[in-house]
Amino acid sequence: MTAFGSLSVVTPLLNRVDVLPVALQSVASQGVKALEHIVVDGGSDDGAPDLARQSGAHVIHAPGTSIYEALNIGLARAQGDYICLLNSDDRFAPDAFQKALTILDAQPRLELLRGRAPQERLRDGQWRMLDPPAPALTLRQVLLAPPNINACFFQRRLLDRVGKFETQYRISADRVWLSRVLRCGANVATLDEPLYVYRNHAASLTIGANKPARMAWVKEHLSYAREALASSLTPAEEADFKAFGDEKPRTSSRSTWAGATRLA
Fold first, then answer.
1. Where is 28: in which H helix or E strand?
2. Are 110 and 191 in contact (CB under 8 A)?
3. Least crowded by CB within 10 Å, which of 9, 72, 159, 178?
4. Is 219 left (phi over 0), alpha (psi -120 to 50) or beta?
5. Looking at the domain assignment, is residue 221 inside a domain?
6. What is the DSSP string of 137-180?
C-alpha cells in the first residue's frame, strides 16, 4: 500500500442514522492508513453519533450548530496534511483518496484538487448515476454552477490563507469559500475522475426535493455579489460577479425573483 500524507475527513451530522452507514463505509473502504474522520454532531437524537463512533470516527458534540458552523469546528480540529468534506448522506467514490492523494503528494505546490462529482438518484428502487465531465475550476464556474466542494481535496495550509467558512451565508458559504480560494491566487487543478458521489433523495439538503428556500438563496447571492463588487477586483472578476449577482435560479418563479433587489 502506498504511503500518503495524512488526510482529515470532516462530516457535519444531524439525525441521519438511516443513510449514514453508506457514508461511513465509503471512508472505511478507501484503504488509507493515515486518516482521521471528524464528525461534528449538531444534536442528533437517533443514534447516528454512536454509529459514527463505532466506525472509528471522532465525534464532537456541538448542539444547535448549523452545517457551516459544524464544518468550522471540524476544520479547526483537523490535523491531516490534506482535508476533504463528507456529507452524512453522500459517499466517496471508490479509490477517491488514492487518486487525489497521489496527485497532491506528487505536486506539493498544488493547494486544491477538485474531481468529478456524479449524482446518484434513487428511481424505481434503484440507484442510477449521472456523471458529467469535470468542468474547469474557474471563478465564473464556481459562482454560476454547482461548486461541488465535496469533490475537493485541499492542503491544510490553504485554510491559513482563506480562513474558515463565513457562517452568515447559511446556504452559499461553500461557494463563497471556493471563490475566495480562487481570488487569492491559490494553485488549483481539476481531475476528470469521480471523487465524490452526491446521493439525490427526498431528504437531501444539497440536491434533493428539500432544497433551501429560493428567496434566501437569491438574497445571499446578491449580498455576496455586492460585497465583492465593493472590493478590489480585476476586470474579469468584476464581470464574473456581475453575472453572479444577475443570475436567476433555474427553478425559481418570476414572482420569487421579483421579490429580491437585483444589482443596479
1. helix 20-28
2. no
3. 159
4. alpha
5. yes
6. --HHHHHHS---GGGEEEETTHHHHH-S--TT-TTTHHHHHHHH
For residue 156, which amino acid is it? R
Query: What are the beta bridge partners of residue 190?
Result: 114
Q: pLDDT tens across 53-111, in order?
A: 999 999 999 999 999 999 999 999 999 999 999 999 999 999 999 999 999 999 999 99
Residues 68 and 153 in one domain: yes
State the pTM of this model.
0.88
101 and 223, same domain (yes or no)? no
Measured between alpha carbons, how far is residue 99 from residues 94, 106, 172, 203, 230 in Å?
Answer: 9, 11, 28, 30, 39
Per-residue pLDDT, averaged over 17-44, amounts to: 94
CA 174 to chain centre: 6
29 backbone dihedrals φ, ψ, rounded to 5°: -85, 0
Q: How far apart are CA 121 and CA 200, in angstroms?
A: 5
Residue 87 is placed in which grid cell?
A: 456529507
Q: Is 262 helix (H, G, I), strand (E, B) or coil?
A: coil
152/175 Cα distance (integer angstroms): 12
CA 160, 163, 165 angle in degrees (round to 5)? 150
Partner residues linked to 40 by β-bridges:
12, 60
For the stretch 225-229, contacts whose Cβ atoms lie closer than 8 Å and that sit 24 or more positions apart, written own/partner, are 225/263, 226/263, 228/179, 229/263
Residue 36 lies in a domain: yes
Same domain, 218 and 156: no
